[in-house]
Amino acid sequence: MNNQDTVDVTTPDKVEPAAPATLVMSNISKLYSGVAALSDVSVEILPGEVHAILGENGAGKSTLMNVASGTAQPDGGSITFEGTPIGVLTPAIAVQLGIAIVHQHPAVLPDMTVLENLQVALPAEVLTSGTSLEATATALLADAGLSVHLQDRVELLSVAQKHLLEIAKALALKPKLLILDEPTAPLGQASVDLLFERVRRSVSNGTAVVYITHRLAEVRELADKVTVLRDGRVRGSARVVDITDDELLAMIVGRKLESTFPPKHISSPDDEANFSINGLSGSGFANISISARPGEIIGIAGVVGNGQSELMRALAGLDYFTGTVAIAGTTLNSRQLLQEAAYMPADRHREGLLMSLSVRENAAVSALAKFKRGPLLSRKRELGTVAETLGSLAVKAASMDSVVSSLSGGNQQKVVLARALLSEPLLVVADEPTQGVDVGARAEIYRILREVSASGIPVVVASSDAKELEGLCDQVIVMSRGHALEVLQGAAISEERMIHAAVRSTTRSVSVVADAEASKHSGLRRFLQGDYAPAVLLVGVIALLGSFLFSQNARYLSDFNIYSVLTLVTALGFIALGQTISLLIGGIDLSVGPLAGFLVVIGSFFINDDKSVLMIVLGVVLMIVVAAVVGVVNGSLIRFARFTPIAATLTVYIALQGFSFLLRSSPDGYINSTVTGIIGSQLGPVPVAFIVLVAATLVTEYCLKKRRWGWRLRATGSNEESARRNGININRTVVLAYVATSLFAFVGAVMLMAQIGVGDPAQGVGYTLTSITAVVLGGTSLLGGRGTFIGTLLGSILLVQVLNATSFLGLSQMWQYLFQGLLILVAAIVYSVARRNNKRRKTSFALR
User: Fold this and answer.
1) Rounded to two decimals, what is the model's pTM?
2) Pick the CATH number of 527-837 from 1.10.720, 1.10.3470, 3.30.2000, 3.30.70
3) Would you call 43 helix, strand, or coil by DSSP?
4) Packing angle, helices 730-756 and 559-584, rounded to 10
5) pLDDT in tens, 496-544
């Protein structure tokens, strides 16, 4: 057979379907940066049928399914759903039609809880159909085989748990078309069996299923029909029973493959071990021992979630361990392993790749010292070495300077492997190295790992695919609940022996005591991991500082001082609430300070003692309109002109400050005394405006946590791409968020106007940095996705309290800035350390 020939095995359906095809995609084409990802692809998906899509990484499978689910728009071709042509398909429209997709990389929102992820992705009626929201959500998760607490933050879930959450979301929709893109890659056998049972049940009810996989065994077990893509084109389609594996492989790679696994190493009894671990124990595993000779590959087997990943992280020097690890007779500790071992993580997006950097930069980042020429890096040497390594792995990319996030999942995994090889490690630790990798690339990875081992570098591989370990490894440790059940060698390494050892295990988890203790305090731990812990900390700091100041000066709690402090809080508080919205979506608004000052200047022309009520009302309306327009400009510059949030809002910052001085070169235009009196009215020592601020904080907090408006904000900031896949209109969300930020700045400007009583163009600028400080103190992440309005209010109170404290203690203005800087520093350290510790607390044994 000629390697370039196209193999087309097409078998006509024997029975004409009674109902129209669920999905027909005709002549679909899609270009990325001028490169064709799909060319004239046509496929028909019938109801009550599992249609498998096969192909190498980069063949166009995921792109085709992104078009089918509305995530990507085709450049040509047409889509018909149940006989009706679809003009423009978006994720939201796809959900309405009954299309659900499980993405290869789960479209989950890491900064939100499990329950909130369900609420964002699913229509309200799906979650309100049962006796209670919690009961319905728990049942949906159980249907997919996922057992986690609804209030667990998704960033703390394992890779497998995130996939099961994605599957639960899809199954909950009871879709007419279910698209599964590599759904079993990180799952253990029990979860795979449960998924297949759910798929068969859906098919029996008439659901059409598209199943993308690299595993031919799964195609045989589940699919009715198969279509193969190669280089963005359809290479053949057939009933599964009418085509052989060899014919499928020939269509997939365009040539006949030799054996998938390279020959195993033949050791001599005289060879000394070059790698050994003895009594290794750590979080999630205990007392692991094994030794290997040069050329041998060690495999780690067992049901997913039984300590394999924790063991791999320890070998890579990422987690603490006791016991010894020796390479070539030298014992290495965690710090040394971190420097000398090359780690290929199972979650390449979270731990393996720098998604905003290029392919070249990702591959070279661990080996920069190799490319030095004197004190500088040699770009020529870097390009040559990286190109050679990427070429040996057949990485498919438009260029080495392409952003790595634009590559297919399998090609991203090859980049991770390239980086490991370029770092010239003493040990290679590969956790699920072929997850989401096609048949041809998988054989290449096996070959490379075998060559690395043959060169004398120890290789340890963990995989949920027992067949992979059987074909690749010379020794296999079978783990269960953190213990090594058995060490298999030579001919004893078989899929049956590994599965038998795992399922017959009676060992107890090494973390039974820890898990039991954790369950007693799970509520407290979730609170500490949640968004409100910083607010509680701020309450304590405010109370302690207030107590200290009162002990120094009894006038601190006088009615006058309470009124003065809370009045100052109102202006800052409203502006900071708006700033919180911008930060929640992963942005920032530097223009809020100048905007507040500019609005005061506008008001100074209309809200005067000699102006009529109509003119005053007109001035207020004009201030609102200007604020809204500024919000639209900020949002549009970011979303449509592709400015960064800092660049866009800094541009507007400068423009607004210039307009303020253009309108008034010096303070003028005194504000109507009646208006300032109304704004400054009080109930006892408490300003009415502060009560309004508290009410606004509670309302916005409720909307943030309990309404779709808040979920959309946090989802956008948590992971924009996942939010878009969940049907959120990102452009509209961002623009409206900046409008809301500016409208809160308007309310803050009203408070500021009453306080200064005159149109001063120099006022307001300082509120930009102060508002950001208040928001950060309140626990809102500068990266977006998490935070609270309550924390922002408390942060505003603390900042004004610090300002007030310097006056009561007779300190200079320098101390104001010093204290504010220390507060920000302490908050940043406390919150970042807390989040890092929380991420380390993984639910290792949730999928038993």
Assistant:
1) 0.74
2) 1.10.3470
3) strand
4) 160
5) 787 666 655 555 445 433 333 333 446 777 777 778 888 888 899 899 9
